[in-house]
Amino acid sequence: MRADPRVVFVRADIADGEAMTRVFAEHQPDALMNLAAETHVDRSIDGPRAFLDTNVVGTFVLLETARRFTADLSPQARERFRFVHVSTDEVYGTLGPAGSFSEETAYAPNSPYAASKASADHLVRAYVHTYGLGAIITNCSNNYGPYQFPEKLIPLMILNAIDGRALPVYGDGGNVRDWLHVDDHCAGLRLVLEKGRVGEKYNIGGGAERTNLEVVDRLCAALDDLLPPSRNPALGSAASYRTLKTFVPDRPGHDRRYAIDAEKIRRELGWTPRRSFEDGLRETTEWYLRHRDWCAQVQEGRYNRERLGLTSEPWNRKSEL
Q: Which domains, ranges and CATH numbers included, belong to the chain?
């Protein structure tokens, strides 16, 4: 990618208070959008400590830095400052076959990842009510699109299929997620930053509920068309990528269904998703087919698309503390 002159990249840990203070002092921001997080549920099962360090402590450091920074601003500048905290629908827990999460749904996180994000949400709310910080919380459904790290469902399935590797479907494949294209999510976040009300929460969802099995089948159909098995030596004599589907043991505490009620952000801010899931999924599949080099680079030495989140080892106090 070409460098954008509007962007200054700083490599730092959001839990490093001194580094965050320097960034604020140097750049004098009028807004902060916190998208930094450890996000993969399976990884949080294997090693929850990193999720607490980044998602809870890191958010606390950003809040404290923003609080101290805004205290020295003029009343007008302090009134304009915004802290947008980007969270997840997983804080709400799991749904039955009907209904959807609204901004009033009680929190009931079921994984270390979800619990860490719920903790951060509560901190942000507290800083609004205690210190008057101009913060807003968003809770989004499952994102997909270009540049997503290959541990997530859609890129994992695409890359495994291309390589002729098994496509692991957890449990019976009936877990439901509401899918949101990353571009639609970014548009929603921009509106929240510009027009959202301080102290409010906004749910952002794509209105595209699909079972995991449906997603895998659609990806296989797209690959059958875009890279026919007959042209992919990794498939051998297989007639379809669907033959790679493999049902594997479910992960512990796997939430059955998520669904977002995005009526509030539609009504108040005029947001609506623009991409259909079918079009977005095909575009995403095409992107990963064209960017195999990027995928190899980000995985190298870090991740071999192995199964995570099924550890049966007792908690290792030495490694986690």
A: 17-303 (3.40.50.720)
